[in-house]
Design a protein that fits this description.
alpha+beta; 290 residues
C-alpha cells in the first residue's frame, strides 16, 4: 500500500508540473495563432491594394513626341489670311499589348514661342476630356472604337504662318504625365511647299506642289544627315557634310498637285532639322537656334 501511495503522489506531482508548463504554452500557442491570422489578413489586404494601385497606365501621342515638326499653312480665311491646322492623337497605349487599365483625364494647351497660352492665336477641338480605360471600361466615344487601345483626336486650328508653337498635353488623373512638341508653321508658298516630320532616329521631308508641275532641287545641307538610298530619287545622294555639293543634292520632277516623302537617317538623334523653300529649291538643314 505504501508503494502504491507513493506512486500516486509522484504521478500527481508530475501532472501538476505538466499543468503548470502547459498553461503558458497554451497561451503562447493561442497568441501565435492569432498573430498568424492577423498577418495573413494583412498580406491578403496588401496584395489586394497592390493589385488596385498597380493598374497599367499609358499616355502617348503620335505627334507630341518631344520633337520638332513643321506643318504647312493651307487654311485660307475669308479675309485672305493663311493659317495652319494641327491634328494629332492622344492615346492610352504604347501598342496593342500595353494599354491603360484606367481612364485618363487630360488637357491640351499651346503657346507661341516667347509668348504665353492666354495670348496665343487659334482654337481647338477636344482640348480636354477623358480617354476611356482599356478592356471596354467606361463609355466609348466616336473616335474610341477598340476595347483596349483608345484614342482622342485633337485639332488646333488658326496657327499663324511663320510662327513656332509649343504644344503640351498633360494627363491629370489618375496619374500625371506631360507630352510636348515644337510645331513650326511654314510661310505659305503658293506653288511649292515642304515640311519635316521628326521620328527620333530619322526624319521625313514631304515636298508637294500646287496646280503647277515643278522640277525641284532637293539639297541636303545638314552635316551627318544620311539619305535613304533605297529611294530611287536619293540613290546617288551622299551623307550631308554641311556644304551643298553636287553629291548632296538631287533634281526631282513632281507633277501638279503631287507630293513625295524623302527619308533621312540621323547620325545624332538629338538634332532637329528644317526644310526651307526658295523658288524651286528645297534645302534641308539643321536647326541651330533652339
Amino acid at each position: 500500500m505504501g508503494k502504491q501511495k507513493k506512486k500516486q503522489e509522484y504521478a500527481a506531482k508530475l501532472w501538476n508540473r505538466i499543468a503548470r508548463v502547459r498553461m503558458p504554452l497554451t497561451v503562447v500557442c493561442i497568441l501565435a495563432f492569432g498573430a498568424f491570422i492577423v498577418y495573413a489578413k494583412y498580406i491578403q489586404t496588401s496584395q489586394y491594394n497592390d493589385a488596385v494601385t498597380a493598374k497599367e497606365f499609358y499616355f502617348s501621342s503620335d505627334v507630341l513626341d518631344g520633337g520638332v515638326h513643321e506643318i504647312p499653312a493651307l487654311d485660307v480665311a475669308e479675309d485672305g489670311t493663311t493659317s495652319a491646322t494641327l491634328t494629332f492623337h492622344l492615346m492610352n497605349h504604347e501598342d496593342q499589348l500595353r494599354y491603360s487599365e484606367v481612364a485618363v483625364d487630360y488637357n491640351v494647351t499651346w503657346k507661341e514661342e516667347n509668348g504665353n497660352a492666354s495670348e496665343t492665336s487659334g482654337n481647338g477641338i477636344n482640348l480636354s476630356g477623358q480617354i476611356v480605360a482599356g478592356k471596354g471600361h467606361g463609355d466609348q466615344t466616336s473616335d474610341q472604337t477598340n476595347d483596349k487601345t483608345n484614342d482622342k483626336t485633337v485639332t488646333i486650328s488658326g496657327l499663324e504662318q511663320g510662327k513656332t508653337y509649343t504644344v503640351t498635353a498633360t494627363a491629370t488623373a489618375p496619374y500625371t504625365k506631360t507630352l510636348t512638341a515644337t510645331i513650326r508653321v511654314q510661310q505659305k508658298n503658293a506653288e511649292l511647299q515642304a515640311s519635316v516630320s521628326d521620328h527620333g532616329n530619322y526624319i521625313e521631308v514631304t515636298v508637294w506642289t500646287a496646280d503647277k508641275a515643278k522640277m525641284i532641287r532637293l539639297i541636303n545641307h545638314a552635316a551627318g544627315l544620311i539619305p535613304d538610298n533605297t529611294d530611287s530619287f536619293l540613290e546617288n545622294m551622299q551623307t550631308g557634310t554641311g556644304n551643298s555639293g553636287e553629291n548632296q543634292s538631287v533634281s526631282v520632277a513632281l507633277g501638279s498637285n503631287a507630293s513625295h516623302v524623302f527619308r533621312f537617317f540621323k547620325s545624332n538623334a538629338e538634332k532637329s532639322y528644317t526644310a526651307t523653300v526658295l523658288n524651286d529649291v528645297v534645302t534641308v538643314g539643321e536647326v541651330t537656334n533652339e
